[in-house]
Amino acid sequence: GAGVSQSPSNKVTEKGKDVELRCDPISGHTALYWYRQSLGQGLEFLIYFQGNSAPDKSGLPSDRFSAERTGGSVSTLTIQRTQQEDSAVYLCASSFAVLAEETQYFGPGTRLLVL
Amino acid sequence: LAKTTQPISMDSYEGQEVNITCSHNNIATNDYITWYQQFPSQGPRFIIQGYKTKVTNEVASLFIPADRKSSTLSLPRVSLSDTAVYYCLVRYSGGYQKVTFGIGTKLQVIP
To answer: For residue A36, what pLDDT band results from cuts at 50, 70 and 90?
Structure first.
């Protein structure tokens, strides 16, 4: 595809359940980023990948959050034992390289609602 | 990490030029200044990026004074479709640092 895609676009789950969010970056982009955006707030950095490696996991809110990337392409963000405060839009972005001057291209996001 | 400060909201009439200023007093030598635009229910979209002086593209201009402690995004002749949130970021060029977009500036264009 031409851009970053994310699935599902919307997810409603019950408190305590696990969820998986998927990101398909632009082909050829080695860098991939996950952000979270709560209602009316800015974007909060969660994690980034350089290839399949995640050098900086310090943005993950808790140990219930994990992410992986395989084959230097698709990434999955997993939230275990979801809590209501996890409700937010989860955005994925990719860039050609992990450099500050490289443009990040964002996907449309996954809207997660935890009941 | 350089901290940025920008107005929370701005209103403008259609056809006017809009200038949004971002303060980044502790910007470092190797930091770039980047602006993104976000429409409701969409991910942010890159607008413009610069290091110093002036940068212009088909969408906007970015003015950066010599001390680089602030930058101004200029949108010429805004239309209703420019209503969005605009984020100013300062990013380290030596690699990747954790970046938080902040709340941004909500621009409302009025007919």
So the answer is: very high
